[in-house]
Write a structure and sequence with these properties.
single chain; 552 residues; alpha+beta; Beta-lactamase; eight-stranded antiparallel beta sheet; eight-stranded antiparallel beta barrel; 27 strands; 27% helix; globular
Length: 552
């Protein structure tokens, strides 16, 4: 009989505090756990879990952290620490709601799998069967794109193509804008030829689900995923912050401390990227989610004992659908032999054990779900700060407790040292790219004369209009549909860059005029650091001039 952690909206806070107390009791002894593959009993080392948690929390100065571990269907460890908003006194517990970011993708694919089982769609259905207005840049790709192709990052688009319609939040783009914009995004690879991570097509997948299921995505995901599995605190669509309560806020490091960024208002909007990365859940919810997937071979049962998802669909979701690059880090740290993408899940092996996982990354919010199905082990990590390296180091240290015969040497400190060495060597960390500032040259506000080649009103076919116009003694860049992308033009040597006003828009961009016969024909942009977050896909923009600044 599996133990499912769940709570209604009314008793969520109480259940969360119960979990926290239960965790404290569990930490005081070591409980044996049965390994279904090896057929041997191993001790759950809670001291090692606590040591790893403490080190990650303090080493990376996190504002808040929540971690949970499931073994053999039972929750054997939960731990939370920190605040919902730094300095405001409300502590995180197992009921606290976090943005799970791209871990939303596996919930979207689970919803689609449910609809497949109900006969409402097939994985091989052409997307246009459900969304007749759907278009890619190439007409042939439009006709050939199947529902399954939306889920495995094989479209031919570059990494993060179209993400500027999703982030930074808040902005004025809609799901319809995202889908309409896809036809203007030019591929950089052949269709189905290689893996390149995207979010935009998961938004399409969510709308396919809505069309096939006969209800909006948020209604379907609550009905088909959250409710059957007892994930009562998970939120999708529009909701009221104070009605739900205990909502963690994102943070960034600033001047030696953590500050809240992109603070939620009273109404949480139904953002376009919901199916790709907009779902929020508590630690208790994510434990129930892992417990469902870690059930023994066979159909996955819901909280009432009925079939939630068949073994056939579980296999389909966890099948290798698209090869992924196998990094040197994976080979050296985990002895990995393969890397692939399923439907909303990453697949690989670690120390000879199958691993099914995903990460989630948003500004000031990081998550990770790691499943070791052969050992029936699941680990969830959620933090509301800049936690890229913390996520990597802590997840590695916890996984090694179950996969390595020499787990004691695989500490957070060990992996933190490896990550630091990689930074010194100029390498990038998987999922969390390093970022650089502009070259160390004199930086100063550009004058109107110095920026004359970039002045005017411009339009990109998928991103919409911008203005580059005089403002005070300088020149200001302003996006009409993404208000956070507003900043001042800075001159660095002979080149212009945009210095964004909002501190949480942390990737600066070059702004280069494209000359034409009659003056400036357009503008192109590019990240100053090519390794920076690919969701700032400035390189996909091609602004054409449409007029002068007001008053010119």
């Amino acid at each position: 009989m599996r133990s499912i952690v769940r709570a209604s909206h009314g008793d969520g806070l109480l259940a969360g505090r119960f979990l926290s107390c239960a965790a404290a009791v569990l930490l005081s002894f070591s409980m044996p756990s049965f390994d279904a593959v090896a057929g041997e009993v191993h001790a759950v080392d809670r001291k090692a879990f606590n040591d790893a948690f403490d080190d990650a929390y303090s080493r990376y100065a996190l504002p808040g952290l929540a971690v949970g571990i499931v073994v053999d269907g039972e929750v054997v460890y939960t731990r939370t620490q920190g605040e919902l908003a730094a300095g405001e006194g409300e502590t995180i517990d197992a009921s606290s709601i976090f943005k799970i970011a791209s871990n939303s993708k596996s919930m979207t694919t689970a919803l689609l799998a449910r609809l497949v089982e109900q006969g409402r769609l097939r994985w091989e259905d052409p997307v246009v069967k459900h969304l007749p207005h759907f278009r890619m840049h190439d007409d042939w790709v439009t006709g050939e794109m199947q529902v399954r192709d939306l889920l495995i990052h094989n479209s031919g688009l570059g990494p993060g193509a179209g993400d500027l319609m999703l982030w930074p939040e808040p902005n004025l783009f809609t799901r319809e804008d995202v889908i309409r914009g896809l036809r203007y995004l030019k591929p950089i690879y052949s269709f189905r030829s290689r893996y390149a991570y995207d979010n935009s097509l998961y938004i399409v997948a969510g709308e396919v689900a809505a069309a096939a299921g006969g209800a909006p995505f948020d209604v379907l995901v609550r009905r088909e995923v959250f409710q059957p599995l007892g994930m009562a605190r998970c939120q999708a669509g529009q909701w009221r912050r104070d009605n739900v309560g205990h909502v963690a806020q994102p943070h960034m490091r600033h001047e030696g401390g953590n500050i809240v960024i992109r603070r939620d208002g009273e109404t949480i909007p139904d953002v376009p990227m919901m199916a790709a990365g907009g779902i929020r859940c508590s630690l208790g919810d994510m434990l129930a989610w892992m417990q469902a997937w870690l059930q023994p071979e066979g159909d996955i049962l819901d909280q009432d004992g009925g079939t939630w998802l068949s073994q056939r669909q579980r296999d389909e979701l966890w099948k290798t659908h698209m090869p992924m690059p196998l990094s040197r880090q994976m080979r050296e740290w985990d002895g990995s032999h393969f890397s692939a993408y399923g439907y909303g899940w990453r697949l690989t092996d670690v120390d000879g054990t199958w691993k099914v996982s995903h990460t989630g990354t948003l500004a000031g919010m990081y998550s990770a779900v790691t499943l070791l199905p052969e050992k029936r082990v699941g680990i969830v990590f959620m933090a509301n700060g800049e936690a890229g390296e913390a996520r990597t180091a802590l997840s590695q240290a916890l996984v090694k407790q179950f996969t390595s015969p020499d787990a004691s040497r695989h500490t957070v400190a060990h992996y933190a040292g490896l990550l630091a060495s990689s930074r010194v060597a100029g390498a990038t960390v998987e999922d969390d790219a390093g970022q650089q500032s502009a070259p160390e040259q004199v930086r100063r506000m550009a004058t109107t004369a110095e920026a004359s080649g970039a002045l005017g009103r411009f339009r990109d076919p998928w991103f919409g209009e911008i203005e580059v116009c005089p403002a005070g003694e300088g020149v200001r860049f302003r996006s009409l549909k993404s208000p956070k992308l507003t900043g001042d033009l800075i001159l660095v040597g002979s080149r212009l860059l945009v210095d964004w006003h909002d501190v949480d828009v942390d990737v600066e961009a070059w702004l280069d005029p494209v000359p034409g016969e009659a003056g400036t024909q357009g503008l192109r942009m590019a990240k100053i650091d090519p390794r920076a977050d690919f969701s700032y896909d400035f390189e996909d923009l091609a602004f054409a001039r449409i007029g002068d600044c007001a008053g010119e």
